Amino acid sequence: MIRKVRVKAPATVSNLNCGFDVLGLALREPFDIIGMELTDTGIVEIIDIKGCNNLSKDPAKNVVGVVLDAMLRKTEQKTGFRVIIEKGINPGSGIGSSAASSAGAAYAGNILLDNRFSEIELVSFAMEGERLASGSAHADNVAPALMGGITLVRSYEPLEIVKVHIPPELYCVIIHPDLEVKTSEARNVLDKQVPLKTAVRQWGNVGGLIAGLYSEDYDLISHSLTDYIAEPKRSAFIPHFYDLKATAINNGALGAGISGSGPSVFALCRGEKNALKVHKELISLMRSVKMGFKDYISPVSKEGAAVY
Amino acid sequence: MIRKVRVKAPATVSNLNCGFDVLGLALREPFDIIGMELTDTGIVEIIDIKGCNNLSKDPAKNVVGVVLDAMLRKTEQKTGFRVIIEKGINPGSGIGSSAASSAGAAYAGNILLDNRFSEIELVSFAMEGERLASGSAHADNVAPALMGGITLVRSYEPLEIVKVHIPPELYCVIIHPDLEVKTSEARNVLDKQVPLKTAVRQWGNVGGLIAGLYSEDYDLISHSLTDYIAEPKRSAFIPHFYDLKATAINNGALGAGISGSGPSVFALCRGEKNALKVHKELISLMRSVKMGFKDYISPVSKEGAAVY
What are the chain B neighbours of A200 within 8 Å (beta carbons)? Predict the structure, then answer.
């Protein structure tokens, strides 16, 4: 029986413009690392959090604790976990920081519990971390963080996740401006009702994006990367958002938008060469407007959570 | 130069549950036939309509006339068409009767005009027929009637149609109850605004259906065939709708729903054998409730409008 494991779980970009609350993809980097040891205490202990000062070690207030506690409640008594979290992803960035820790915790816990849970059960456990972090147990980040690739939450009740075909050349460029957008605030600005006509346009794009991914039709992917729901509202939180988006697209990106609820902005590119060009231009723009930021460039990763 | 042509254009099932206003598929039968001759009169003449007594021969009041007139306005003077329409599809059935005639007219007209228009232009012309028939120039029936297979209207402005991969075993069973549902009435019962949560569920299913079609995952196709938008409202127009749907699904259909705006009910089946079983049970149900009906059973057809 394995008693000790170390896993990584990647950052993720959710929504992908048109797929509000249902689509997400895994990056190769950045990622969180979860080191975990099996104990016979019956409880979860978070003994260290590296790379981040403002996360609680109280298991009831940390997504890792909440996820593992949900798993322990489905196992026999006296099993416990001792955990060290290494944060590679900044909390509040909009690239699935809480999701990565949640997914990593579920994945590591399952290894120490002899893989008794299925992948979809792990997504359910990880969603409990999202409930703590954002107030809503959404799956559009934890699914790709666990399963890798591009995922579609087809349904929440019952939970059904589809792994979508990944064209080989997809790259993501991420600009994370130095500002905080609370997921709960980003949710509150959205209209609770949408015009049917707008909804039809949105699901035309969801269908187009999925068709484009399967058929590796980059033009179709590009045309489908449009959001009529969240971007018009949430872009107000992100200074220079439309400049960033226009710069990405004018430099050949397939599309660009808000990653999750922001503030990170992502550009989806075809091929590493184009991603490097878009990355360079976005960095140059951020410097010219004198905004602090972090930046990432990564292929869309087939791998989700994995032993590290 | 070809001066005379005869084409067929098939019936179509639009919406396919989740894909309101964007998805549709072509059947092998029934179909309309358009016989057409090039003239130098500069006008459209409809000289006969077979198989239907209540359609106008006035070109301004017949979808065929309207579609051909739209084409003629883009060509040199003095070109004209003389047309015979053979209706194989009952008007008002909900399986794209006006769309088939419109698509057939556009396809036949294009052959006589030396194929000067592209497929997407033909869809645009055929949409003018839909505007006459229903008041809205929608493409979800004319696209599959022209192009065959399963089509997605990714966007109306600009018009972009995607041909979706067709799993080999898909069959449709159609029950057309003897009653009339006006497309305009069926549109009026729909809410103009939908809750964001409902819209998210709907586009989760659109994504799931497209993914299921490409990956030939019949379970995923089946799960995705759910409609939260039109069916809850329009089912009121169709007596025994939910009995028909339940009977289809209980007998192994992948899904069932309202074809277009009804009153036809469709069941999507995997394989001819299952389609025959579902067909038999639906017929038996219609007889037991003593409702008049017509019925069709057809594979999903790769072929749309074609010379006949």
Answer: 20-22
